[in-house]
Write a structure and sequence with these properties.
Length: 245
């Protein structure tokens, strides 16, 4: 098992903070950013009673031997279960921006002898993942905490394999209330050159699951247009999944 350390980290941003533009070349998010309040969304026992991780991994098409990233890994609920799903020849990279969280997760990975898991300290606007490496990237109940979504998604794109997909699980409510309205999510992904694969309700995971893939050339940062809160994604139509879960 390899522990990957990074430099820098992130601190919580105040609830309902409206991010102002920074001199990064990327547009600022036209929405509040939720506070990082905890590394835990719910207890692992409660989530397992609903088979949350199993359903998400099945809908995401995660199989043995895949390489998967768990972004905003927290205490490792998905990390542990992903490691079991991909098997000893697969790989899981667990990323978080809070140094204390990554340190605690690293200890858990060592204690549970998960030799196919690495942990990595990311940056608020950059997950710092190796290029062309990941078949699936999971972001579960954390997208609304990303302060600079356009820069984050732009820097995430090169880490995907040609058939790689990004899976977002979130609640359908305003970002300041720890969710992301689906139309806003679709618009922000489309602005950075991601095409929708599917979206469907997922009550067992507290909201919905959306799947995206990279499509076309990655846009230059200066050409990216910020979405208005509640705006619909116009660059590409979303194909809704059949039913829920």
């Amino acid at each position: 098992m390899m522990l990957l350390a990074g430099c820098g980290g992130g601190s919580a941003v105040p609830r309902e903070r409206q991010v102002t533009a920074k001199n990064t070349g990327f547009p600022a998010a036209d929405r509040p950013v939720a506070t990082i309040v905890s590394a835990r969304w719910s207890t692992e026992e409660a989530r397992d009673r609903l088979n949350e991780a199993g359903k998400v991994m099945s809908l995401a098409g995660i199989e043995k031997d895949m390489t998967v990233a768990d972004i905003g890994a927290g205490e490792g609920y998905y990390t542990i279960r992903l490691a079991q799903r991909v098997g000893e020849d697969g790989r899981v990279v667990a990323e978080d921006i809070v140094p204390e969280t990554i340190e605690a997760l690293g200890k858990r990975v060592l204690q549970e002898r998960l030799d196919n898991v690495s942990v990595r300290l990311g940056l608020p606007a950059d997950p710092r993942l190796p290029e062309a490496s990941f078949h699936r990237v999971l972001m579960v109940h954390m997208y609304h905490e990303i302060e600079s979504p356009y820069e984050f998604l732009w820097r995430l794109r090169p880490s995907l394999t040609p058939d790689g997909q990004v899976i977002v699980v979130d609640a359908d409510r305003p970002t300041e209330h720890h969710g992301t309205p689906p139309d806003l999510l679709k618009c922000e992904f489309a602005a950075v050159g991601y095409a929708p694969v599917s979206m469907r309700p997922m009550p067992s995971a507290g909201g919905y699951i959306a799947i995206f893939k990279a499509s076309g050339a990655r846009p230059e940062p200066g050409t990216i247009k910020a979405c208005k809160s509640g705006a619909r994604a116009t660059p590409a139509a979303m194909r809704t999944g059949q039913g829920s879960e």
